Amino acid sequence: MNNPQNYSILHYLISAFFFLVSAVLFLVPDPGKVYVELFGLTLLPILLCSLMCGPSFAFLAGLLAPLLSFVLWRNEAFIPTVFLQMLTLAISGLLTGIVYKQIHYPLIGVLVGIITGRVAYGIAMVIYYFRNGATYTLERFVADAVEPSWPGFIICAALAPVIVQLLNIAGVMTKLGNEPAGKAKEIVHRPK
Fold first, then answer.
1. What is the C-alpha separation between 192 and 189, in angstroms, rounded?
2. Distance (Å) of CA 52 to CA 70, 90, 109, 122, 191
3. Cα–Cα distance between 86 and 4 in angstroms, integer?
4. CA 56, 58, 61, 66 torsion: positive or negative?
5. CATH 1.10.1760.20 for the 4-188 domain, yes or no
6. What is the C-alpha to C-alpha distance for residues 26 and 38, in angstroms, rounded to an integer?
7. Distance from chain centroid for Cα 189
8. pLDDT on residue 125
9. Cβ partners under 8 Å of residue 59, min gap 6
10. What is the pLDDT of residues 24-69, one digit of tens each?
């Protein structure tokens, strides 16, 4: 499964599913949008896509989900809102998948993905504010990118590894070419 051309139809279907789920969640109207962000509902599908299908699929899903939502419904301003959503989800998905492919521990991959996504958000906002002659402070970053979303980060960090472990036990991850490693492999492949 190391050859990129060996991806099965299952990879494409799973990626499309998570892409659509994330895109649809961007449609939630303003009163409910707080809960979508609070519970990390737009990030979780991208993280799961990354863990199940790999970094390239998750990068594309993370990049395209906010863009599709914007093109179809234009419910947010493209700059900076949609662009930041695209950047954050794409970077989170890409790095979660890269780390998971290297070490096969989903929690570490998810944490790296969440943190790097937020760092990318902060860097993009520093550039955006600088171009507009303003300063983006650490306090503003915490207020914009960390405080509203920390419950979602915890939920993603708790749910994604559990879902991946259940998929390991069911044999789905093996079918996708994502063999578990270390203790996870021992749990999944117990001698009978």
1. 9
2. 26, 15, 12, 27, 25
3. 24
4. negative
5. yes
6. 13
7. 28
8. 93
9. 90, 93, 94, 97
10. 776 666 555 655 565 567 888 899 999 988 999 999 989 988 888 7
Measured distance CA(62)–CA(117) in Å, rounded:
11
The residue ranking higher by pLDDT, 167 or 99, is 99
Are 28 and 75 in contact, with CB atoms under 8 Å apart? no
Residue 109 CA to residue 86 CA, distance in Å, equals 19
Nearest by Cα to 114 from 83, 81, 154: 154
Confidence at residue 187, expressed as pLDDT on a 0 to 100 scale:
46
Q: How many CB atoms lie within 10 A of CB 53?
A: 26
Amino acid at 147: E
Q: Rounded to whole angstroms, how far apart are CA atoms 36 and 30?
A: 10
Residue 61, exposed/middle/buried by CB under 10 A (0-12, 13-18, 19+)? Answer: buried
* Contact criterion met (CB below 8 Å) for 11 and 53: yes
